[in-house]
Amino acid sequence: MQLRSPLALAALALASPALAGTVKGAVRLTGAAPALAPLTITRDQTSCGAAVPDESVVASNGRLANVVVVVRGAPAPPAAKAVVLDQQRCRFLPHVQAAPRGSSLEILNSDPVLHNSHGYLGQATAFNVALPLKGQRVARKLDKVGPMKVKCDVHPWMSAFVVVTDGPAAVSGSDGTFAVAGVPAGSYTVTAWHERFGERTAQVTVPASGEATVDFTFGG
To answer: Which of 33, 150, 180, 210 is deepest in the core (most CB within 10 A)?
Structure first.
């Protein structure tokens, strides 16, 4: 039998895929989703139109979108070189996103009007930048964990959330489902955060490969 040297064994271990699973599930909303009227645009209507949707609750068929799910205690993912927050027709896109701590947030103005992107962590200002020109980009580092609300001081109906995380995360889609891949085997606390309904927690045990399922419910 051929014996492998310690160096060969170490190289083999490094080449082997890491043992990790996926945390997946769905976010449900009990009761009827609130009927939200569109938000009226009160200035720059030529460029931005008459109204934008109220995205504070996006739900369909009892499923809730825009919920940020974080696996607490799992190794933090690498910081993203850039995550983008765009401003189109007086609306932030996307409305909710998650980014690992240390990522760069690239704020983009795609409108031919002045926008002022003002980020808040709680009541404290995280950044406050003016973007007067179409196509202008400004980058800011995301170095504090938590949900950051972004407003436009020029157009007060505009809002978005960038949730800065210290663990792997995902945002529920329009069907309420989410999947957080690459989570090492172990037991974890999983949190689910929504801008209007607050936070829920659950416990999950992730296998060395395969999937662990955890669902969340918001509402009455």
So the answer is: 180
